[in-house]
Design a protein that fits this description.
With 256 residues, this protein is an alpha+beta fold. 34% of the residues lie in helices and 24% in strands. It has a single domain (2-141, 200-255), classed as Bira Bifunctional Protein, Domain 2 (BirA Bifunctional Protein, domain 2, 2-Layer Sandwich). The chain has an eight-stranded mixed sheet with strand order 2-6-7-1-11-10-9-8. The chain has a three-stranded antiparallel sheet with strand order 3-5-4, with no helix packed on it. A hairpin with a 2-residue loop joins strand 4 and strand 5. The longest helix has 20 residues, at 18-37.
Length: 256
């Protein structure tokens, strides 16, 4: 099972106008045509559920003891487990505490699953969609490790916590809130020092993340997570996985 989530709209009603609504409708029509041409079935799953996403970084809205879903992931996976095949969905999702220039607590999400794809094949799928929707050039692909080495001369998999903190302070980023959370320091360096300097003219796919940053992704022979993110013009557009579907590996990951 394979996953991609990509936001097609996080609407702010204060800046919505008729022309933007027309552009949005055209984009959604193009997305549907893209999946129809590939024989990928459109489905619809419930927005309210008795259970919710276990990701500690996503906060839910609770309505009368039911949860508004942060994504349609689990309902879609139930259908995949039943043998439905390749599927996609365009629906609303809800994440409490996410508000800003690029985020809204209620937003529209596109999520799809491809049977028989690894994360490299899925990156090609996403690249084709971005070329269609955004008229971009073919993307660049780079590993998470190569990205840090290129921009910071720092190996994210082997650098010590002190080296991460020193890199931050040397680049005038000072904080006392992260304590000794290694992944938080890596994320700080990525968002403040790397993301603003990549994908200015074409999308960039970053793949093979530390396994501690990839819930539900498969782990490869190099002990890295088979997951990717794609960036374009300073914005993270998508997050994709080579889905973990081995129950023993999942129990091991949960107990690590």
């Amino acid at each position: 099972m394979y996953l991609l989530t990509i936001t097609v709209s996080k609407p702010n009603l204060q800046i919505m106008n008729i022309e933007n609504l027309k552009k949005r409708a055209k984009i959604i029509a193009q997305i549907r045509a893209f999946f129809t041409a590939r024989d990928i079935l459109e489905i619809e799953t419930p927005l309210l559920s008795h259970s919710t996403n276990p990701d500690p970084h996503l906060q839910n809205f609770c309505v009368d003891n039911l949860y508004l879903q942060t994504s349609p992931e689990f309902a879609m996976k139930r259908l995949i487990s039943a043998g439905i095949g390749d599927v996609y969905q365009i629906c609303k999702a809800f994440r409490d505490g996410e508000a800003g220039r690029f985020h809204n607590p209620e937003f529209t999400i596109l999520e799809w699953y491809r049977i028989g794809f690894d994360h490299h094949a899925l990156m090609n799928d996403v690249d084709e969609l971005l070329q269609l929707i955004l008229q971009t050039a073919s993307s660049e692909k780079i590993t998470y490790q190569e990205l840090f080495l290129r921009h910071l001369n720092l190996d994210p998999h082997n650098a010590t916590l002190l080296e991460l903190k020193n890199c931050s302070s040397q680049n005038n980023i000072n904080t006392t809130d992260l304590e000794n959370d290694r992944d938080a320091w890596l994320q700080l360096l990525l968002t403040h020092l790397i993301e603003p300097n990549i994908a200015k003219t074409k999308p960039v796919f970053v793949y093979d993340f530390p396994k501690s940053q990839a819930m539900l992704a498969r782990i490869n022979a190099e002990n890295l997570a088979e997951r990717f993110e794609v960036y374009f013009q300073g914005i993270e557009l998508a997050n994709g996985f080579h889905e973990l579907n081995n129950v023993e590996d999942q129990f091991a990951a949960n107990s690590a």
